[in-house]
Amino acid sequence: MPIRYLTADAVRDAEHAAGDLLANGTLMRRASHGVAQVVIDELRRTGGCYGRQVGIVVGAGDNGGDALYAGAALSRRGVACTAVLLAPDRAHRAGLAAFGRAGGRTVETLAGGLDVVIDGVVGIGGHGPLRPAAAEVFGQLTAPADGGPVVVAVDIPSGVDADTGQVHDPAVRATVTVTFGAPRNAHLLAATQCGRTVTVDIGIDPTGTDGDTLSSLTDDEVAALWPVPAPADDKYSQGVVGVIAGSARYPGAAILATGAAVSATSGMTRYVGTAADDVVSHFPEVVAARSLADAGRVQAWAVGPGIGTDDDALELLRDILSTDLPVLVDADGLTLVARHPELVDRRAPTLLTPHAGEFARLTGDELGPDRLAAVRDLARRWGVSVLLKGRITLVADPDGAVLGNDAGSSWAATAGAGDVLSGIAGSLLAAGLTPARAGAAAARVHAHAAELAARDAPIGASDLLAAVRPAIRALRRGHPTSATRVP
Ligand SMILES: NC(=O)C1=CN([C@@H]2O[C@H](COP(=O)(O)OP(=O)(O)OC[C@H]3O[C@@H](n4cnc5c(N)ncnc54)[C@H](OP(=O)(O)O)[C@@H]3O)[C@@H](O)[C@H]2O)[C@@H](O)CC1
Ligand SMILES: [K+]
């Protein structure tokens, strides 16, 4: 099953459904136990619990209650816990009493020398940035990388919007975020602000929620989706992709996109364009033609990188989009679509793959902080699938379903990386994957390839291209992380 991310409303619905069946406070007890366990694990990794120092920042709601009960559990393990109450009159009463009974102390401000700080300021009830009192407490902390305390956020790092992932300023930056039942949208959309996310089972059933979904594929799911030749397959039956990219003057995009298509799946890759000679000299297996009339049949097209935006490019794009084949449109192709949106008024699957700037060109508006709503809205209005590039890639279908992918690093932020993504996703479309799955699976392999190529040093798109096949291999063998990260 894909990992499903929930909005705050969906979380509350699931919590109410479970809460009706459970004794008062059961969910909070389970949640706080999960938080305490994560803190204990952090302390044990660095020498044990007894005598260690944990600071807790407590807001006015149940998020603070979770933190206080976690503090009580930690105090019983011999951890010295101090809590700053941001709103003393509104702090969770029973949680505060339990904290005090277990030996926890309330203080005006956090002392230095803490091992862990627990962020219990706000969770799914939060809105806007950290207010001044909380901002002051967190502003005084030394960053973990400089020897400061590990920051464990309860549910959501405070100051991060649970639904949109917008990181307000100021907001807590967590080392670990402990959430309950199912991850919230923010855990994907603001993954870097959340640090490692741990989801604790508290006995709620988040699968009953309906409406627009945000999900991500697991590595195992991407591996299982990846097209590989079956015993009866030949070079045609696996899906032939046609790449239209680059030019004789600028062959780079042609080589990168076509090379990525060759690496991503078996079967056949065709190329159409004036860079045909360059492409074939790099990849002799590509069947290249200079014009569409001379190209053979394909099952999907990937068109756009480096094709220019003149009338010839427009005519070519028009011809491609008037077919009934799946088409991926990228880069210059998107600039043309922005000028002529009617081109994508078609029945066959269409996948647009803009970065933020191209997205703004398509919509006429700058991309705001709510990337999820923006990509969903464009997909819905235009009736196409839209892959919005970035550290967190989002692929929206016209029905509102969105698949996301956290690249885990930003090594792929390099010129030409988008051309590689086009080639991979285009070949997956030709193999019969839906646009959303093709986009999300391509983004995952692209991200793993970037990490594999980089190994902590900068890379160019050629390095990324060379790592596509090893990344697919590692994914299919079930160890993408150990294969792609430096020990
Ligand atoms: N429901 C359940 O079954 C379970 C819930 N659980 C836990 O409860 C959490 C939700 O609790 P919640 O609903 O009490 O809201 P919560 O996030 O604590 O904060 C709301 C308060 O904060 C305030 N506030 C808002 N923005 C702010 C800001 N920027 N900076 C500062 N303050 C701000 C706002 O006050 P006001 O705006 O009125 O001043 C309001 O009073 C959830 O995330 C999970 O941790 C778990 O125990 C599992 C079971
Ligand atoms: K929090």
Ordered list of secondary-structure elements with their pairings:
Blueprint: E1 3-5, H1 8-19, H2 26-45, E2 53-58, H3 62-76, E3 80-85, H4 93-101, E4 105-107, E5 116-120, H5 132-139, E6 150-154, E7 176-180, H6 185-189, H7 191-194, E8 196-200, E9 214-216, H8 219-225, E10 241-244, H9 252-264, E11 269-272, H10 276-282, E12 287-289, E13 300-303, H11 311-321, E14 327-329, H12 332-339, E15 350-352, H13 356-363, H14 371-382, E16 385-388, E17 392-396, E18 402-406, H15 417-430, H16 435-454, H17 461-466, H18 468-476, H19 480-484
Parallel strand pairs: 2-3, 2-5, 3-4, 5-6, 6-7, 7-8, 9-18, 10-11, 10-13, 11-12, 13-14, 14-15, 15-16
Antiparallel strand pairs: 1-9, 16-17, 17-18
Helix pairs in contact: 2-3, 3-4, 9-10, 9-15, 12-13, 15-16, 16-18
Bound molecules: ligand NPW and potassium ion.
Potassium ion (K) binds next to β5 and β6.
